[in-house]
UniProtKB/TrEMBL annotation:
Superkingdom per UniProt: Bacteria
Source organism phylogeny: Bacteria, Pseudomonadati, Thermodesulfobacteriota, Desulfobulbia, Desulfobulbales
Keywords, in A-Z order: Activator, ATP-binding, Cytoplasm, DNA-binding, Nitrogen fixation, Nucleotide-binding, Phosphoprotein, Repressor, Transcription, Transcription regulation, Two-component regulatory system
Tagged with keyword Membrane: no
Protein name (Swiss-Prot/TrEMBL): DNA-binding transcriptional regulator NtrC
Example GO biological process: regulation of DNA-templated transcription
GO molecular function: ATP binding; sequence-specific DNA binding
Keyword presence, Transcription regulation: yes
PANTHER family xref list: DNA-BINDING TRANSCRIPTIONAL REGULATOR NTRC, TRANSCRIPTIONAL REGULATORY PROTEIN
Record SMART domains: AAA (SM00382), REC (SM00448)
């Protein structure tokens, strides 16, 4: 066995899913549906290291109270809080109280595996009395599913970026798969055997984000009862993925710039600089160039991060990927949930391909997983889809579906206008070469607006 994972959640469905997934990864798994049962089990087992997945909302006892009792009873145990979108503040408070990390539901198996491995490794090293400078998990593999030429071009550019071992900036709407592309860049690059760590810059307040990224020394602030290495140190020689990088404060932008320029930083509360060698992959759903122009994002940091730029197209602009992705998500959801739903009816596929998917691939996955749960037969039908997905979309009802070529023409035209017809800038935003852009302009007969 690779180690022990305790799981505490009052939802039986979540417990079954977590038990199945985690045990398949080679861990010893102990599940509990109540806080009191968990505390009894921890007391009986005694100190043995491991990791605890703890839901932040428990009926008998508040999750933060459970956390305090667990840390008093088993201080060597790494605790990962599981939280819904409405309880992020509580999860942040949990980290201040000693939790190692938190997972926001719904989370992917890949994210779950990475957090467990990282937490368990740190817990084991602390138990052995060593520091936590050992190796951490690399990016878990998740299949990228696509058929569209548009996304294939993006994928091929990502492969080329990976080989260059340079910093990469990923741009695109939320839910388009930026973290998956970041992980692929890491796996295909020269740092593949080293760490791949991810940080959402919008999920934490400024002080906590600074501590997570740069680490802190004991006594640096109230509640800092021990020193903690930041993600920069843990990702040394590897890759650090900074999601929603536009949300960094000006203070943290300046500190991050020093890392990119000089390869060093000072942990919170420390006086001596630490040197690191980290590859950065940053992502944003905002126009960083506009933020630079407004003085809201440092120009020097922008150019340090944007050595190689990739644009991830939204799902509505690659409609032929929808059926492929839908079947992929259905296969995974049915296997995980123990359901025998293995088909999508033609009528349901028609509804799925007609919908505009403002939440992109993430929204499609959630819709399919919901359908797998409520489907009454082996086939997913329109009755299993949410009403808002079946509702006719503005500008869609009564019209012919937009072809891929037309969707691409509109996207190229839109980006060219945003870039003021600066072809080099537009090519970077689209994630294609200048030569390819010139060809598309000619093919689609595009000209600047008068």
């Amino acid at each position: 066995m690779k180690g022990t994972v305790y799981i505490c959640d009052d939802e039986e469905g979540m417990l079954r899913y977590l038990r199945k997934s985690v045990s398949e990864w080679g861990y010893e798994v102990k599940t509990h549906s109540s806080a009191l049962a968990l505390l009894r089990s921890l007391a009986e087992d005694g100190p043995r290291g491991g990791v605890l997945l703890l839901d932040i909302r428990m009926p008998e006892m508040d999750g933060l109270e459970v956390l305090s009792r667990v840390k008093a009873l088993r201080p060597e145990l790494g605790v990962v809080m599981m939280t819904g979108y409405g309880t992020i503040d509580s999860a942040v408070e949990a980290i201040k109280l000693g939790a190692f990390d938190y997972l926001t539901k719904p989370f992917s198996e890949e994210r779950l595996a990475a957090v467990i491995g990282h937490c368990l490794e740190n817990s084991r090293l602390r138990e052995e009395g060593g520091d936590t400078t050992g190796p951490c998990p690399s990016a878990p593999a998740e299949e990228l599913v696509f058929a569209s030429p548009r996304f294939r071009e993006t994928f091929e550019l990502a492969q080329r970026a990976a080989a260059g071992d340079v910093n990469v900036l990923l741009q695109g709407e939320s839910g388009t798969g930026k973290e998956l592309i970041a992980a692929e860049i890491h796996r295909a690059g020269p740092r593949a055997r080293r760490c791949f760590l991810a940080l959402n810059c919008a999920a934490l307040n400024d002080n906590l984000l600074e501590s997570q990224l740069f680490g802190h020394r004991k006594g640096a602030f109230t509640g800092a009862d021990s020193s903690r290495r930041g993600l920069l140190e843990e990702a040394d020689s590897g890759t650090l993925f900074l999601d929603e990088v536009a949300e960094l404060s000006t203070h943290l932008q300046a500190k991050l710039l020093r890392v990119l320029q000089d390869g060093e930083f000072i942990p919170v509360g420390a006086t001596r600089a630490r040197r690191v060698d980290v590859r950065f992959v940053a992502a944003t759903n905002k126009d960083l160039e506009q933020l630079v122009a407004k003085g809201e994002f440092r120009e020097d940091l922008y150019y340090r991060l944007n050595v190689f730029s990739l644009y991830l197209p939204p799902l509505r602009e690659r409609p032929e990927d929808v059926p492929l992705l839908a079947r992929h998500f259905l296969d995974r959801a049915s296997a995980r949930l123990g359901r025998e739903v293995d088909r999508i009816s033609d009528a349901a596929l028609k509804v799925l391909t007609r919908y505009s998917w403002p939440g992109n691939v993430r929204e499609l996955r959630n819709v399919i997983e919901r359908g797998a749960i409520i489907a009454r037969g082996r086939s997913l039908t329109p009755d299993d889809l949410p009403e808002h997905v079946k509702r006719p979309q503005p500008g869609v009802a009564g019209t012919a579906p937009v072809t891929l070529a037309e969707a691409e023409r509109r996207q190229v035209a839109s980006i060219l206008e945003r870039a003021g017809w600066n072809k080099s800038q537009a090519a970077r935003m689209l994630g294609i070469t200048r030569r390819t852009l010139d060809r598309k302009i000619l093919d689609y007969g595009l000209t600047p607006a008068p």
